[in-house]
Amino acid sequence: GNSVTQMEGPVTLSEEAFLTINCTYTATGYPSLFWYVQYPGEGLQLLLKATKADDKGSNKGFEATYRKETTSFHLEKGSVQVSDSAVYFCALSEQGGSEKLVFGKGTKLTVNP
Amino acid sequence: KAGVTQTPRYLIKTRGQQVTLSCSPISGHRSVSWYQQTPGQGLQFLFEYFSETQRNKGNFPGRFSGRQFSNSRSEMNVSTLELGDSALYLCASSPRGDNRASNYGYTFGSGTRLTVV
């Protein structure tokens, strides 16, 4: 079945450091890809998405590019802030009808001042 | 604009009991999905409803059930609770009713934290 693998955390960075969280997927067809973020005590918020190969999703300084050749959707940010501390989830939705999101295990990011 | 509202926020139940969780989607949203989040298994899809019909179901035992009302509000029920059912249950809604609803990004509620003792 479809699956998402993302790098294990936790990840600890200093403010203004560069962030990369790796995400790879296994899926039939052409899934849509997402990054969601979960702050403590809250639900998930959609951070960015890409619906076809070579699309780049971006939001709040975060970016991710849909790479079909490497089945990857790595999350990057050039300069993290303390407020970016959260758990980040990579996810896919299956093409053609299923409304099910398949999530990775999540990566906890802590940014220190 | 009100977000997705889940009630209650916290719940403690005893093994063998049953529980009902409620979700009110964003006004106008007609697709509602439920997910279970645990430290061990992560986020797992439970079911998805649109226009009072269950369109998709995850790999959970029959003790887990749900429904959607004509106003799009949804409930999920877990009967004969087990310790392993302790989790954060998340509801999400989408404005779209077609088969690309997830591409528009589901809006998640803050969840109901269920503890089974």
Keywords:
heterodimer; A: 113 residues; mainly beta; 6-stranded mixed beta sheet; 4-stranded antiparallel beta sheet; 12 strands; 0% helix; B: 117 residues; 7-stranded mixed beta sheet; globular
Question: What is the secondary structure topology, with strand pairs?
Answer:
The complex is a heterodimer of chains A (113) and B (117).
Chain A: E1 3-6, E2 11-14, E3 19-21, E4 23-26, E5 32-38, E6 44-50, E7 56-59, E8 62-65, E9 75-77, E10 86-93, E11 101-103, E12 107-112
Parallel strand pairs in A: 2-12
Antiparallel strand pairs in A: 1-4, 3-9, 5-6, 5-10, 7-8, 8-9, 10-11, 10-12
Chain B: E1 5-7, E2 10-13, E3 19-24, E4 31-38, E5 42-50, E6 53-57, E7 64-68, E8 74-78, E9 87-94, E10 107-108, E11 112-116
Parallel strand pairs in B: 2-11
Antiparallel strand pairs in B: 1-3, 3-8, 4-5, 4-9, 5-6, 7-8, 9-10, 9-11
Number of helices of chain A: 0
Helices of chain B, by number, come to: 0
Summarize the helix and strand pattern of chain A as letters.
EEEEEEEEEEEE
Strand content of chain B: over 45%
Give unreliable regions of chain A as ranges. Answer: none
Rounded to the nearest angstrom, the radius of gyration of chain B is 13 Å
Largest interface: A-B, 25 and 27 residues
Mean pLDDT across every amino acid position of chain A = 92
The 3D shape of chain A can be described as globular
Largest sheet of chain A: 6 strands, mixed
Estimate percent helicity of chain B. under 10%
Provide structural commentary.
The complex is a heterodimer of chains A (113) and B (117). With 113 residues, chain A is mostly beta strands. Chain A is built from no helices and twelve strands. In chain A, strands 2, 5, 6, 10, 11 and 12 form a six-stranded mixed β-sheet that branches. A four-stranded antiparallel β-sheet of chain A has the order 3-9-8-7, with no helix packed on it. Chain A is globular and about 45 Å long. The relative contact order of chain A is 0.34. Helices cover 0% and strands 51% of the residues of chain B. Chain B has strands at 5-7, 10-13, 19-24, 31-38, 42-50, 53-57, 64-68, 74-78, 87-94, 107-108, 112-116. In chain B, a hairpin with a 5-residue loop joins strand 7 and strand 8 (74-78). At the A-B interface, strand 5, strand 6, strand 10 and strand 11 of A face strand 4, strand 5, strand 9 and strand 10 of B.
